[in-house]
């Protein structure tokens, strides 16, 4: 076991902190990486090591890791109105201004904004709104919700049920009944020999239709989807996918909810992933880049169809009984609103479009490496698919610990990666420059070379 002095941050962390997504016992031996500062897209730890973060933290640090401008906005907001709630007809300027701005930016016509505190809360709330809507239509039996295998939609009990990753359910007695999962649209892995992307998309849409029919369409309430599937390793959809899926949803009157928590605010090269892929959702959840991760804030955008159901249910029950203490917090909404102003001033979408070709070219070039079978991406999000054999697409066996080896060598090369199963997901801060993308790719290739030298000798 590694020994730390009793008063060091490492020892105090081990003694007091339970870390999410962390092996609890191993953490007692290894201790934490203590981050102490940042400069743009780079972070540094207490040993002086500097890392290029290729994942923007948890997909969220869109403007990097420090901002004097946003810090001042938060300070001024806290001095003016450090807290107030938006329950029971109460409101304040930042909540109103942010809601109006989100409706202005929405990719399809939306009616209202329901402010929340996290992406998980936004998706959890949207599930409640789906059920609320169908109750208002006199169809409470329309309750089942489909999401896609490999998806991630949050960590509450409901949103982890939407999340179609069995390891996230193990030991918790989850998922809840009524949360159903359809195909992950991984063309590289799952297409039939000679099958085009359009044909693959049609096959997945046909499968979804068959599943809806098997469940009875009068029991199916909604379909949940992120434009680029983050939980599957930054996986863009194949050609024609959402058009074919939406045709099925429309046929059976199934609501579509777009989880834009990762993709919203520029990540795909448009303000919303819905714009990139021609999606027409009934609701949109967003978070992360909404405040550049500088404050915990999220939102659900709902169309008029959903809103009118809320009005009817308010008449029936006396109020819309839902809310969180910190939802619409004046400091958080002030920072989010200023973040959106920064995006406009820096011409964020034009910047992303200018860097996108370099991002796709430099990371796509890594497909010549023996460990890489494929790369797919859009905007400033994409993933490398790892293989043992390029011809058969065989995976490395689990006992090799390929992901752990890649993570170790990446950190030795000053690179923080997000490894998701057989994919390495890239979603760097949106301020990344073309030269920084080249540096990212250089460090990635050095990492792959070091790992391949190890595993090829096994």
From TrEMBL:
The keyword Amino-acid biosynthesis does not apply. CDD domains: OAT_like (cd00610). GO terms for molecular function: transaminase activity. Pfam families: Aminotran_3. Its cofactor is pyridoxal 5'-phosphate. It comes from the Bacteria. Signal peptide: none annotated. Belongs to the class-III pyridoxal-phosphate-dependent aminotransferase family. The keyword Protein biosynthesis does not apply. It comes from Neoroseomonas terrae. Keywords: Aminotransferase, Pyridoxal phosphate, Transferase. This is Aminotransferase class III-fold pyridoxal phosphate-dependent enzyme.
């Amino acid at each position: 076991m590694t020994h730390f002095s009793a008063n060091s941050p490492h020892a105090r962390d081990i003694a007091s902190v339970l870390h999410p997504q962390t092996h609890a016992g191993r953490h007692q031996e290894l201790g934490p990486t203590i981050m102490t500062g940042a400069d743009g897209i780079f972070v540094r730890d207490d040993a002086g090591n500097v890392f290029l973060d290729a994942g923007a933290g948890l997909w969220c640090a869109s403007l990097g890791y420090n901002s004097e401008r946003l810090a001042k906005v938060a300070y001024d907001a806290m001095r003016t109105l450090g807290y107030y709630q938006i329950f029971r007809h109460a409101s304040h300027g930042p909540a109103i201004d942010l809601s109006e701005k989100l409706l202005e930016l929405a990719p399809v016509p939306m009616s209202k904004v329901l402010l929340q505190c996290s992406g998980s809360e936004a998706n959890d709330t949207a599930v409640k709104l789906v059920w609320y809507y169908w109750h208002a239509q006199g169809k409470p039996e329309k309750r089942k919700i489909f999401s896609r295998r490999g998806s991630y939609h949050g960590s509450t009990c409901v949103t982890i049920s939407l999340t179609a990753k069995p390891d996230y359910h193990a030991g918790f007695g989850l998922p809840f009944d009524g949360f159903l999962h359809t195909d992950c649209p991984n063309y590289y892995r799952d297409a039939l020999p000679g099958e085009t992307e359009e044909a693959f998309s049609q096959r997945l849409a046909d499968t979804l239709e068959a599943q809806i029919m098997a469940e009875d369409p009068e029991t199916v309430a909604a379909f949940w989807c992120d434009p680029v599937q983050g939980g599957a390793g930054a996986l863009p959809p194949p050609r024609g996918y959402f058009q074919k899926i939406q045709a099925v949803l429309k046929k059976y009157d199934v609501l579509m909810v777009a989880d834009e928590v990762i993709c919203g605010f520029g990540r795909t090269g448009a303000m919303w992933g819905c714009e990139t892929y021609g999606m027409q959702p009934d609701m949109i959840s967003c978070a992360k880049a909404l405040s550049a991760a500088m404050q915990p804030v999220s939102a659900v955008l709902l169309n008029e169809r959903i809103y009118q159901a809320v009005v009817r249910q308010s008449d029936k029950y006396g109020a819309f009984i839902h809310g969180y203490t910190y939802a619409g917090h004046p400091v958080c909404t002030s920072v989010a609103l200023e973040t959106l102003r920064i995006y406009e001033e820096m011409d964020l979408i034009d910047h992303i479009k200018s860097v996108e070709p370099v991002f796709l070219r430099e990371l796509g070039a890594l497909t010549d490496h023996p460990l890489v079978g494929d790369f797919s991406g859009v905007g400033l999000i994409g993933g490398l698919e790892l293989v043992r054999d390029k011809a058969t697409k065989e995976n490395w066996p689990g006992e090799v610990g390929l992901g752990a080896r890649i993570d170790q060598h990446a950190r030795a090369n000053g690179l923080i990666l997000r490894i998701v199963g057989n994919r390495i997901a890239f979603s760097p801060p949106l301020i990344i420059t073309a030269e920084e993308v080249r540096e990212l790719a250089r460090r990635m290739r050095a990492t792959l070379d070091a790992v391949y030298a190890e595993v090829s000798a096994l």
